[in-house]
Design goal:
26% of the residues lie in helices and 28% in strands. The chain has 384 residues and is α+β, with helices and mostly antiparallel strands. A six-stranded mixed beta sheet has the order 5-6-7-3-8-9, sandwiched between helices. Strands 14-18-15-16-17 form a five-stranded antiparallel beta sheet, with no helix packed on it. β1 and β2 form a beta hairpin. The radius of gyration is 23 Å and the shape is globular.
Length: 384
Amino acid sequence: MRARVGQVASHVREKSCVWHGGLLSFIVSMNTPTARPYVESRPLTETEPGLSPPPPTASEPLLALTDVTLAYGERVLVRGLSFELRPAERLVVVGGNGSGKSSLFAVLAGLAEPAAGRVTRRVRTPGMQFQDGALWPHMSVARHLEFVDVRDDPAWRERLLEIFALGSLRDAKPERLSGGERLRLGLARALAGRPELVLLDEPLAHLDPASADTVRETLPLLLDELGAASITVTHDPDDVLLFGDRLLALTGRGSCWLGPARFALESPPTAGLAAFAGRGALLEGVADEHGSASLGLGLVLRDCEPSRPVQAYLDAASVRFTESEGPRVLAAVFVAPDRRGGSWLRIGGRLVRSEDTHGGLRAGETLNVQIVGAPRRLAREDAP
């Protein structure tokens, strides 16, 4: 069995290195602001070369990164990243294009080495789903699952084929599959070996809405059933809490933020996370020599560092529709309903979200809104 596992790992690595190199060639610079690194780790002893790692206990990490640096050429994408992932824990990774997500995914999968730092793995062959599939062109759908199912459990494989709507395609080769079908096969293959750790790269990309909803409902339940830890890369804030309790935000400028996922979405500490969460308005200004910064919308932040840029976050709950007039009442233009509920408005040239909604409003209509809460200052985004 160990020989077969090694064969699987070798096969995945051969195909996936092609995938990784192709993606990195398209990495571009990104402008998402940075935040200071959050460190949460302790060093682990590396497993001796050639030996399988011992099974982790409930308190031992499956994976640990210690002071890891990721680079693309001369450009440092991530610096000083440390964290541990224990059995059944869930981590979500977010960031814009060129932020280092692909580089981190390759390092986590064992397909590349970091520029500096240490990666300790107690799982030799995690289940892996790649955004472009990295499927084996000479294998049928069913054979993909059989090849990685080291326990040889036909009932489990049949169940995965049914869950991911691949039963009628069991004899098809990847060239006959659509983009969504290829992605679903990648997900099924990632789970077929009942891994302790699953790495998922945009698991809902390229799926039609109905298929995406099905995967949203079933994939977290399958991970729970397996008791598997997971690391999921996503661009969608609505999927963060489905796939993770912790969130790692990469910026591509060397620094990152790691912390509770719900806090990151509901009270984003940085401008980059505020923009990602999309649940409020990001306000900017420059403090005068007395430390006061005008943010627009009639809002002023005081006790700022004099003559420095200031960023603040105005929660959507602080912007309320009103029919009255008075202090903090502003004219707004209705832009569109928000898919999470609430409304997008334009106030004085700024795009602002409100939790309120009105079914009779049409794009371009005006209304009054009142600012009922104070903006919250964000961490400075000029960290190295």
